[in-house]
Design brief:
Strand content: under 5%
Helix content: over 70%
Structural class: mainly alpha
Number of helices: 10
Shape: globular
Length: 298
């Protein structure tokens, strides 16, 4: 008897194969998106408690987004606010649509049954995603972001990143949705922080390139596996990826540390950068190897 996960994988493979056979035409993309949306609608319709949980989280984040926009308008002025608003709205709508689209992945890994709510762990992940949307919107609008503001966002991101995994394990609410959301959120947040530091001339361009490639190489590998090979990828962190994330976080903390910590920063910055670069080179290789091994076991 096939599990729901196996049926979902087969459904995804059929859609991807049809997209390939259409040679990625406009009609093929339209069919792919339409059928995917119909699948998401079916999941929401047949699981009202999970759908209502999505509504509540979206409402909460929408209220936070409104407060954020008001704060930007009052603190930076209307001209800056209107430059910030389009990118922020786009990112917010994208992240909440992404959550709705993938509700079917929020399943118990042992029983394959859908959870009845999005859960606290995923809520924290989406709060971190909202922080990433905030920084990305400022970048899209060509706005300057102070190191203090980036440092505050970074600290909140680190705290929620530690808590969401811990809570998911403690409450037994780990799911494929949480794995994907955590990876996507970290990608967007660290990409935004890297670009802001580059914009503020705090980070050397070549270091920024290495940090960006650390995320883009696995991302391109995932796209290639999905759309060229019609093979869904198993998401999940590796030990090397975790070490790289910790090292990169420590390096960002040193770059963004208040002036009072500068003597310590100058002493630690070089060694931490070296360790970070080494781990950033190893992490994507380890991730691709893990994905290859998971496919080979089938």
């Amino acid at each position: 008897m096939q599990t729901d996960t196996e049926n979902k994988d087969r459904f995804a493979i059929e859609l991807l194969t049809a997209l390939q056979q259409s040679h990625f035409s406009v009609h093929g993309w339209w069919t792919f998106l339409l059928h995917s949306w119909e699948k998401a609608q079916t999941t929401a319709r047949t699981n009202p408690s999970l759908r209502n949980s999505w509504y509540h989280i979206t409402l909460m984040l929408f209220l936070i987004a409104i407060v954020t926009c008001i704060w930007v308008f009052f603190s930076d002025g209307a001209q800056i606010g209107f430059r910030f608003l389009p990118g922020f709205l786009f990112c917010f709508i994208w992240q909440q649509s992404d959550l709705y689209w993938h509700l079917g992945l929020h399943r118990n890994p042992k029983t394959y049954q859908l959870f009845h709510s999005v859960g606290l762990a995923n809520t924290l992940t989406w709060l971190r995603a909202l922080c990433a949307s905030f920084l990305l919107a400022r970048l899209i609008g060509g706005l300057h972001t102070s190191s203090l503001l980036v440092f505050s966002v970074f600290l909140f991101g680190v705290i929620t990143d530690m808590l969401d995994g811990l809570i998911a394990r403690q409450t037994s609410t780990q799911s494929h949705l949480g794995q994907i959301a955590d990876g996507e959120t970290d990608f967007c947040l660290y990409l935004a922080i890297t670009c802001v530091l580059l914009q503020n001339q705090v980070l050397a361009p070549w270091i920024a390139c290495v940090m960006i490639l650390r995320f883009f190489i696995p991302f391109l590998a995932v796209l290639g596996s999905y759309f060229l090979l019609a093979r869904p990828v198993r998401f999940g962190s590796t030990h090397w990826g975790k070490y790289a994330g910790i090292a990169q976080g420590c390096y960002f903390a040193l770059l963004l540390a208040p002036g009072i910590a500068q003597p310590l920063v100058q002493y630690l910055q070089g060694p931490v950068l070296l360790v970070t670069l080494v781990l950033l080179c190893i992490a994507p290789i380890a991730q691709m190897q893990a994905n290859y091994d998971s496919q080979s076991e089938k």
